[in-house]
Amino acid sequence: MNNGDNSKGLPLWHGRLNVSSADVLRNLNSSIGFDIRLYKEDITASKAHAKMLKTIGVYNESELSAVLDGLEKVKEEIESGSINILPADEDIHTLVERRLTEITPAGAKLHTGRSRNDQVATDLRLWTRRICSEIITELISLQEALLTKAKSLEGIMMPGYTHLQQAQPVPVAHHLLAHGWAISRDVQRLFESRNRTNVSVLGAGALAGSSLPLDSHAVADDLNFKSLFNNSLDAVSDRDFVVDVLSAIALLGVHLSRIGEEIILWSSSEFNFVELDDAYATGSSMMPQKKNPDIAELARGKSGRLIGNLTGLLASLKGTPLTYNKDLQEDKEALFDSVDTILNLLPAISGMLLTMTFNSERTNELATSPFMVTTDIAEWLVLNGVPFREAHALVAGLVQEALTTGTELSELVATHELLGDEPKKLFENATIANSKKTHGAGSLKQLKEQVTVFEQNIANNRSLL
Ligand code: ARG
Question: Domain range holding 452?
Answer without folding.
Answer: 367-464
